[in-house]
Amino acid sequence: MIFPPEERGKAIGLYGAVSGLGLIAGQMIGGMLIHWNAWGLGWRSVFLINIPIGLLAVLLIIPLIPEMRSKGEKGMDWIGAILLTCSMILLTYPLVTGRESGWPLWVYISFAGSLLLFFIFLFQEKGLNRSKQTPLIPVEIFKERSFRSGIFTILAYQIGNGGFFLIVSLTLQDGLSLSAMDSALAFSPIGGAFFMACLIAPKWSRRNNEAVLKWGAFILTMGYIAVLAVTYSSGEQIHWGQLVVPFLLLGLGQGLVGAPLMGTILSGVRSNFAGSASGILSTFMQIANVFGVALIGTVYFSSITLQEKRNPSPSWIESHLTSFNWSLLCSLSLAIVTFILIFYLHGRVRHNKALHPVKMAD
């Protein structure tokens, strides 16, 4: 681990704060690029920002990462990496494109293929472990209940967030007809509150990590309820300025949960699993984002289609707001699940620390 145990909470908090700042900057820069329409690329121009930032990140990261070598030579588990990558592609691609294609047969074949490759991957990893070789993922880590609880907590939290950001963008631009720049400004309260929460969460976590996560999940839930109350009560007369306070609550809740959550999960993992656990959690966070876009996005578009079938000429704003409210209920439900799982997670972490008091990753 690059950071010593006493610095990891601060490092994770700063990482979350920078992510919040990136949320604000990304929305605004993306809005400006679309507004300028560089080279007539339209929405595709937002991907231009990744080129200079990606190159700069590569140049900056090289001197920052110390050279770390393990004792003895450990070969890369290329077979495991290929199997897992193919399994994830077969799972995520049809989730994103299946609805637009009408859920044809190939989608379900792809899901079955993903499941098959994943089981082959597990067989491969267990075989390497038995032969004392280095697997891509030590499957024994999933035997620890605290880690399994942490994965479910991250999935619930991140699926709700990923889907929420999608449906808010669609509603602001398609439903309320805001420009890309105005939509980016509407997002800024979430990013600003998230940034501030990530800065203060590590300090609060050192005093009472459990309370920070629980309060964060509670505030996140209240934020979703506040957004739902505004959109439902205002109807077609809604203005995006009415969402500023609910968005501040959401950003605050997301920051208070997101910043210390991974550190809490890792604190219940034995030190020999710390590196693998961190990588697995990061992977599940990315998968959860895809699930959020696919699942909650499907609810959103299916609701619009259903309304069009019932009423061939519905009000444009009303149609999008109704779909938004139904989709928002999904994110709200997942926030409640996150709140409940956090209680269970802390219990499992305490239990695991009691079983292995000198072997924790901290």
Structural class: mainly alpha
Shape: globular
Number of helices: 9
Give me the strand/helix succession. Answer: HHHHHHHHH
By DSSP, the count of extended strands is 0
| Largest sheet descriptor | none
Beta-strand content: under 5%
Q: What distance lies between the first and last C-alpha atoms, to the nearest angstrom? A: 11 Å
Low-confidence stretches: none
Q: What Rg is obtained from the alpha carbons, in whole angstroms?
A: 22 Å
What is the average of the pLDDT values? 81
Summarize the amount of helix as a percent range.
over 70%
Overview in brief:
This protein has 362 residues and is mainly alpha-helical. It is 78% helix and 0% strand.
Describe this structure in words.
With 362 residues, the chain is an all-alpha fold. The chain is built from nine helices and no strands. The chain is globular and about 65 Å long. The protein starts with a helix and ends in a 7-residue tail after the last helix. 36% of the residues are buried.
